[in-house]
Design goal:
Blueprint (H helix, E strand, L loop, with lengths): L3 H7 L1 H67 L1 H8 L7 H20 L4 E8 L4 E6 L18 E3 L11 E9 L6 E10 H8 L7 E5 L5 E5 L16 E5 L2 E9 L5 E9 L8 H42 L13 H41 L3 H17 L3 H18 L5 E3 H19 L3 E7 L7 E3 L4 H12 L6 E10 L2 E8 L13 H10 L1 H7 L6 H12 L5 E6 L3 E9 L6
Parallel strand pairs: 12-14
Antiparallel strand pairs: 1-2, 1-5, 3-4, 4-5, 6-7, 6-10, 8-9, 9-10, 11-13, 14-15, 15-17, 16-17
Catalytic activity: ATP + protein L-histidine = ADP + protein N-phospho-L-histidine
Keywords: Coiled coil, Kinase, Membrane, Transferase, Transmembrane, Transmembrane helix, Two-component regulatory system
GO molecular function: kinase activity
């Protein structure tokens, strides 16, 4: 008696369950274990990437505002009205113009200050008149020291004693220069509030620090704890991103114009993140996986294994000869479609078996009928040869020639040389046929042959042209009651062999757009009895057309052209096949 283990393991559903559990549970447990070890490292890299991205965004915003302030200050210093105002001296003659330009300068400085919310003050200093004109913020900020000395076209940190506000301020100065004499006429100075800018950009968190240091190691801006000593060992111009002691440090160099590089320090506390409840999640995932594998094996057995076994049993019955073993089970849409295809296959197989039996029966009947009417070809050859020698003995060479031509025609019709013969042999058979017909019609019918020498070696189906010549005699020339001419032409054009048979008989009416086959059919019906009596064989034009289609395909055809009283032309286009040397 088999054990319970062997019985269970032989069940297909159990094997599917164990396979799914093995291929999914083991990799999943390994992945979870690796994930637990690498989660902290990944979290650290993610936080470092976020810190780096945030640092870049802060610097981008700052450089945009600083460059905008520098550009507006430069435009004010290059303004034509400001330059003209700086050139004028205090005198009665210039009083009116000075007043107008003073108003214009006030308006221009106020407009510049209002275009940036971080500019606290804009001042115009004139050397000629020793005047200073300022536009200040309207937020209650007291006037800042206007007369400052420092380098041009660079942001300079404002000393604490010159700033009455509790923030970090920068000054940017542009000289006013006479374009002709290049003499310095004055300067335009803008005060930029760094504290206001960074207070809007930074999100305040505990232990977060930020600092900006210029090339002279002056603090441009600071917020929180600054630990710049950590980066003293780095090479000049190198950016740094590192994590140490639960803090992420980022140091970048930022270009604030004129090739001046500031150092930007940004440090953020690192969050200690680990995969929570590792063991609990692992147990839950394994349990869920077992349930999913069990459910999958059950569904697989129900919707795949069971219908497959049913179809297998039906196919075994069909293999043993039971063609009535149809699919009748109800299952999913796909299995029903497969079952319908299987049923159609059985029906088609049964029809094919019946058709083969019917064809075999008809073939046997045709063979029996052919035996009744079979004439021994050797007996026919010997009889004709006897007639030929009797004709020679009695000195009647015409009879001998006719019998010889008839023998050659009979040999060709029996196909002893195969289904295809060279075109030169086909033309020779036509001459043999006309030699026989000469005894009946005399010189009334002439045959003219124009064959391109290159076409004589081309292979064509045997007895291809003879039925066309015979058809021209019976239906075209004989009813005309006059002398007739049949022209046979062959030529090559590109990759096709063209064969044409043309007569000057009575012709026929072919409707416009018609292929001529309707007229051939009507003519054949009216001369059906005569055709059967007069023809050498049972091969007609329809047989020739079907033979071309069978051998070469529907793209090669036979074309018929005819008019009443003008004769008929039949042209065939065939592929070129040369005889082997």
């Amino acid at each position: 008696m088999p054990s319970l283990y062997s019985v269970l393991f032989k069940r297909f559903q159990i094997r599917v369950f164990l396979y799914l559990l093995l291929v999914t549970a083991l990799p999943l447990v390994l992945v979870i274990s690796l994930f637990n070890h690498q989660f902290a490292e990944y979290s650290e890299k993610t936080q470092m990437s976020q810190v780096n991205q945030t640092h870049d965004q802060l610097l981008l915003k700052m450089t945009q505002e600083l460059r905008f302030t520098a550009e507006t200050t430069h435009r004010s210093a290059m303004d034509y009205g400001i330059i003209r105002y700086a050139k004028l001296t205090d005198s009665a003659a210039n009083a009116k113009e000075l007043k107008e330009l003073n108003t214009y300068a006030n308006s221009l400085l106020s407009e510049q200050r209002q275009r940036s919310q971080y500019v606290e003050q804009v001042c115009l200093t004139l050397h000629a008149t020793n005047r200073t004109l300022c536009a200040q913020s309207s937020e209650g900020t007291e006037g800042l020291a206007a007369r400052l000395n420092g380098p041009y076209k660079s942001f300079e940190p404002l000393a604490a004693e010159n700033s009455k506000s509790k923030g970090y301020l920068l000054t940017y100065t542009e000289p006013i220069t006479d374009k002709i004499s290049l003499q310095e006429l004055g300067k335009v100075t803008s005060w930029f509030n760094m504290s206001k800018l960074w207070n809007e950009m930074l999100v305040k968190t505990s232990n977060q620090g930020y600092a900006l240091i210029d090339p002279q190691q002056r603090v441009v801006y600071r917020d929180g704890v600054y630990r710049g000593d950590e980066f003293q060992g780095e090479k000049p111009g190198d950016d740094v991103l590192q994590a140490d002691h639960n803090v992420i440090y980022s140091m970048k160099h930022v270009d604030v114009g004129e090739g001046i590089l500031w150092k930007s320090y940004y440090e953020v506390p690192q969050m200690a993140v680990s995969f929570p409840h590792y063991r609990t999640w692992l147990f839950l995932l394994v349990t869920l996986l077992i349930l999913l594998c069990a459910g999958s094996s059950f569904l697989f057995g129900t919707y795949v294994s069971r219908p497959l076994n049913v179809l297998k049993m039906l196919m075994n019955r069909a293999e043993l000869g039971d063609l009535r073993a149809y699919w009748t089970s109800k299952s999913s849409k796909e299995w029903m479609q497969l079952g319908d295809s299987y049923n159609q296959m059985l029906n088609r197989l049964e029809d094919l078996i019946k058709q083969v039996k019917r064809e075999e029966s008809l073939k046997k009947e045709a063979e029996m009928e052919a035996l009744h009417y079979q004439l021994n070809p050797h007996f026919l050859y010997n009889t004709l040869n006897t007639i030929k020698w009797v004709a020679k003995i009695h000195k009647t060479p015409q009879i001998s020639e006719v019998v010889s031509a008839l023998v050659r025609l009979l040999q060709a019709s029996l196909g002893k040389k195969g289904e295809f013969i060279p075109l030169r042999e086909e033309l020779s058979l036509i001459h043999d046929y006309m030699a026989i017909q000469k005894f009946r019609y005399g010189d009334r019918i002439q045959v003219e042959t124009e064959a391109d020498a290159l076409t004589l070696g081309c292979l064509v189906p045997r007895m291809l042209l003879q039925p066309l010549v015979e058809n021209a005699i019976i239906h075209g020339i004989e009813p005309a009651k006059r002398e007739g001419v049949i022209r046979i032409r062959t030529w090559l054009d590109r990759d096709l062999l063209f064969c044409q048979v043309e007569d000057n008989g009575i012709g026929m009416q072919v409707k416009e757009g018609s292929s001529g086959w309707n007229a051939i059919h009507d003519l054949g019906e009216s001369h059906a009895g005569k055709m059967r009596r007069e023809r050498m064989s049972g091969i007609g034009l329809s047989h020739i057309r079907e033979k071309i289609k069978l051998y070469y395909g529907p793209q090669f055809k036979m074309h018929i052209g005819s008019n009443p009283g003008e004769g008929t032309t039949i042209r065939m286009s065939l592929p070129i096949h040369q005889e082997e040397e």
